[in-house]
């Protein structure tokens, strides 16, 4: 039994980078996991990604072989959202579009029990907007995990306008049972805390690169050695995914109309070119693939 006694089964909607990572940490923590996606090929990729990630952790001595096999056995996949009906918590990690998320949450609310925790992994969209079409909006909360989920410790718990105290407390206990440290955002402005800070910081770094003032390497070095950051802003952008930051920046800009949040042209061009960072093998740096196909540390810009 896990620390969060009222949660035994976790549903995850969306099997991409974030969804597969959330499914992995939940399974490692001892929960039964139902991983949903509309495409069988996406589910297959997710299971492959999880298997590779678990074995990397085992090679580093962070998991035993039996831990790896037990975690894998706890994960089942499905293309039917109805198969998540008996979940005790459902975390949505689908495409970062409000209309898409609203549809998912409306369908989930009609399927699951009235007391089930419904969480969104959105990086920037206000939870109030996502919950607006849900029966029982008090049980909808933001749980913003960070990529890669098995490695990053932070989880941002975001309260929507109608999210009640019990939901926030349950979401926090659940995240902590996954080994995460939480902050609570009490007003769900677009971008919350972390995305607003990151977008403003990264956008300025992008403008410095775009204008030829400094190279990505020198900007990252300045932030690591001058500010004590573990990673510079361009390396962080590559790790998070240029497309993810572009969506977050656009969402915050549309909500605030503050030009400091508008995605710079260099970011738009790189996303259009498919230069998304580690997950595509190239962003501001290039990432040679390991034998298992995963991206390694940057080799060059």
Overview of this protein structure:
It is a single chain. The protein has 301 residues and is an alpha/beta fold. The protein folds into two domains: 177 residues, 3-Layer(aba) Sandwich (Rossmann fold), CATH 3.40.50.720; 87 residues, N-(1-d-carboxylethyl)-l-norvaline Dehydrogenase, domain 2. 44% of the residues lie in helices and 13% in strands. It has eleven helices and eight strands. The protein has an eight-stranded mixed sheet, with helices on both faces. Helix 1 crosses helix 2 and helix 2 runs antiparallel to helix 3. The longest helix has 20 residues. The protein is globular and about 55 Å long. 49% of the residues are buried. About 2% of the residues have low confidence.
Q: Which structural class do you get from the secondary structure elements?
A: alpha/beta
Report the C-alpha radius of gyration, rounded: 19 Å
Amount of helix = 40-55%
From the N-terminal CA to the C-terminal CA, the straight-line distance is 46 Å
Biggest sheet: strands side by side, in what order?
3-2-1-4-5-6-7-8
CATH topology descriptor of the largest domain = Rossmann fold
InterPro entries: 3-OHacyl-CoA_DH, 3-OHacyl-CoA_DH_NAD-bd, 3HC_DH_C, 6-PGluconate_DH-like_C_sf, 6PGD_dom2, NAD(P)-bd_dom_sf
GO molecular function, one term: 3-hydroxybutyryl-CoA dehydrogenase activity
Domain 3-hydroxyacyl-CoA dehydrogenase NAD binding: 9-188
Keywords: Oxidoreductase
Keywords:
301 residues, alpha/beta, Rossmann fold, N-(1-d-carboxylethyl)-l-norvaline Dehydrogenase, domain 2, 2 domains, eight-stranded mixed sheet, 11 helices, 8 strands, 13% strand, EC 1.1.1.35
């Amino acid at each position: 039994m896990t620390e969060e006694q009222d949660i035994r089964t976790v549903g995850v909607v969306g099997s991409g980078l974030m969804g597969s990572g959330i499914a992995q940490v939940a399974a490692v923590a001892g929960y039964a996991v139902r991983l949903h996606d509309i495409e069988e090929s996406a589910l297959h990729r997710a299971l492959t990604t999880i298997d590779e990630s678990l074995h990397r952790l085992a090679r580093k001595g962070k998991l035993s072989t039996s831990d790896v096999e037990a975690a894998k056995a706890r994960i089942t996949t499905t293309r039917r959202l109805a198969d998540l009906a008996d979940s005790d918590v459902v975390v949505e990690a689908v495409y970062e579009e409000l209309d898409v998320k609203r549809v998912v949450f409306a369908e989930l609310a009609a399927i699951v029990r009235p007391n089930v925790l419904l969480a969104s992994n959105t990086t920037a969209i206000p939870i109030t907007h996502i919950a607006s079409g849900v029966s029982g909006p008090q049980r909808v909360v933001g749980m913003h995990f960070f990529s890669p989920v098995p490695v990053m410790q932070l989880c941002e718990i975001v309260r929507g306008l109608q999210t009640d105290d019990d939901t926030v407390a349950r979401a926090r206990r659940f995240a902590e049972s996954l080994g995460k440290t939480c902050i609570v955002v009490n007003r769900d402005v677009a971008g919350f805390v972390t995305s607003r800070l990151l977008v403003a910081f990264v956008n300025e770094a992008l403008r410095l690169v775009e204008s030829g003032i400094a190279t990505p390497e020198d900007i990252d070095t300045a932030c690591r050695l001058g500010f004590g950051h573990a990673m510079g802003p361009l390396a962080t952008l590559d790790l998070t995914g240029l497309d993810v930051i572009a969506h977050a920046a656009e969402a915050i800009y549309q909500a605030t109309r503050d030009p400091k949040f508008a995605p710079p042209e260099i970011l738009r061009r790189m996303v259009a070119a498919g230069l998304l960072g580690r997950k595509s093998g190239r962003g501001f740096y290039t990432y040679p693939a390991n034998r298992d196909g995963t991206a390694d540390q940057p080799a060059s810009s």
